[in-house]
Design a protein that fits this description.
The chain is α/β, with parallel strands linked by helices. It has 2 domains: 165 residues, 3-Layer(aba) Sandwich (Rossmann fold), CATH 3.40.50.10940; 316 residues, no CATH class. Helices cover 39% and strands 22% of the residues. Helix 9 crosses helix 10. The longest helix is centred in the first third of the chain and has 21 residues. It is elongated, with a radius of gyration of 25 Å. It binds manganese (II) ion. The site of manganese (II) ion has 5 residues, from loops.
């Protein structure tokens, strides 16, 4: 992934004299350096801005620097916010207002009017907040002392969401074949997706992939087989089937890298010239950070790549997922998630096994090799992006993953088991009411708050189904949101 940084822009004015401004400058530098040691991306102190020209200049620089993933502002002193109108109105990068102050406590003996003039974030940040509200700017506001662990965690999470925006605006999805015939939820407006989310979604012929596969050498396959055998156990005696997946992976990766794509789709209905649907191949590509969507689902593919980038450095577990079937016994209500082959091994609780089994769906001449494993336990989210016609809706649901309660020895695919919030039945009702897809991105390390921040920055609708959601409240929220989005 590219190296991203964030810029710390501090507001002030010329009224205070050089000494105060020198103190503000030194403290802002100290704060940025100290916070950078714990934040997931560097925070670079750029300027203490004292005029409209300085603010416009720094915003212009931020807009044009591809490494700058967002700006974080703060007003140590008072900064009259008419100075900020021109700069903020032209800002094209994610924006966070850190409402903090340098000192933790009010110093009982030291405090006098000089101290008050130097340390007036409490009203400087209100003036600053007004102008962003007046400009209707999408922004994140985080309040609290800059050395507080929770403040830093939230700032770090916002940075990850902003990096998701940067990755999204750079996103190219390679599609092999079209969507699965007749399926509605995997469809969408690709022009709107490019305009709103930055995604370039284009198609390449399966025949081009087959030609690329035929050009892969046995030595190249030997190399990738070593990688597979180092990471996975082999529980099948058909080495040719595994080698065929290696051939597919090398060819898909080569085509994506040639075109600068970081996500891809394919469909079991369009495998002409291929012996097997890519299973292990797609799974290992996902483990390497590429996005994937089955049945031509380019929306979930792009979201998988974006959320993997947002969670990078966590446990890496964000993956393409599909709700398959339920266990509805009272007190043991769970969803079982899987896919016909393509579940990312970043979800695995233990070392995955390579198995080869017959796949009845699609035009597989031979039994495709795939990784089989159980998913990890723990709190997670599932995320779905749907096209509502005129706008995108991002739906996020809190879930709790468990060790699968049954061994399911004849199930030939990787599996994850969870219970959705608020409970399985209400959770299903809410998901269905909101129009959430059967395809999702499941993530253990991207939070609902990060997805809310991402949706705000992208100016798309956000729906969060959590422990407090009821079908009744959700229906009302969706109705009001529908009216609001039509007026926007
Ligand atoms: Mn599917």
């Amino acid at each position: 992934m590219k190296k991203y940084t964030f810029w710390f822009v501090v507001g002030s004015q010329l009224l205070y004299g050089d000494e105060v401004l020198r103190t503000v400058d030194a403290r802002a530098r100290e704060m940025a350096e100290e916070m950078s040691r714990e934040l997931p991306f560097p925070l670079e102190y750029k300027v203490t801005a004292k005029s409209a020209a300085e603010i416009s200049d720094i915003v212009r620089e931020a807009n044009f620097d591809p490494a700058c993933a967002g700006i974080i502002t703060w007003c140590h002193t008072f900064s009259p916010s008419k100075m900020w109108i021109g700069g903020l109105a032209s800002l094209q990068k994610p924006y966070c207002h850190l409402a903090t102050q340098y000192n933790l406590e009010i110093p009982n003996d030291e405090i006098d009017m000089d101290f008050m003039n130097l340390n007036q974030a409490a009203h400087g940040d209100r003036e600053h907040g007004f102008i962003a509200a007046r400009l209707r700017m999408p922004r994140k506001v985080i309040a609290g002392h800059w050395q507080n662990g929770e403040v830093r965690r939230r700032l770090g999470d916002w940075m990850r969401a902003a990096v998701g925006v940067a990755v999204s605006r750079d996103m190219k999805v390679m599609r092999f074949g079209d969507n699965m015939r007749e399926v509605a939820v995997t469809e969408g407006d690709k022009v709107e997706a490019q305009l709103r989310l930055g995604w370039q979604v284009n198609t390449w012929a399966v025949g081009d992939l087959v030609r690329e596969m035929n050009a892969v050498t046995e030595a190249e396959i030997d190399g990738l087989m070593e990688t597979y055998l180092a990471a996975y156990d082999v529980a099948c005696d058909n080495m040719n089937a595994i080698r065929y997946q290696a051939r597919e992976e090398i060819a898909i990766r080569r085509m994506m890298e040639r075109e600068g794509c970081t996500a891809f789709t394919n469909t079991f209905q369009d495998l002409y010239g291929m012996e097997q649907l890519p299973g292990l191949a797609s799974q290992h590509l996902m483990a390497e950070g590429f996005g994937y969507g089955g049945e031509g689902d380019w929306k979930v593919s792009a979201m998988t790549a974006i959320m993997k980038a947002m969670g990078e450095g966590g446990n890496g577990a964000s993956a393409f997922m599909e709700d398959y079937t339920y266990h509805l016994a009272e007190g043991q209500e769970y969803s079982l998630g899987a896919h016909m082959l393509e579940v990312c091994p970043s979800l695995a609780a233990d070392r995955p096994r390579i198995e080869c089994h017959h796949l009845g769906i699609g035009m597989n001449e031979k039994d495709p090799a795939r990784l089989v494993f159980e998913g990890k336990e723990g709190p997670a989210i599932v995320v779905s992006l749907v096209d509502m016609g005129g706008r995108f809706r991002l739906i996020c649901q809190d879930i709790n993953c468990v060790k699968p309660i049954l061994p399911m020895p004849n199930l030939p695919v990787a599996r994850v088991m969870w219970r959705a919030e608020p409970d399985l039945a209400r959770g299903i009702e809410c998901w269905v009411i909101a129009g959430g897809a059967h395809h999702t991105v499941l993530s253990y390390d991207v939070s609902a708050e990060m997805m809310r921040d991402f949706a705000r920055m992208m100016d798309i609708e956000f729906v969060h189904i959590n422990k407090d959601t009821t079908p009744e409240s959700l229906e009302k929220d969706l109705l009001l949101a529908d009216i609001a989005w039509k007026l926007k």
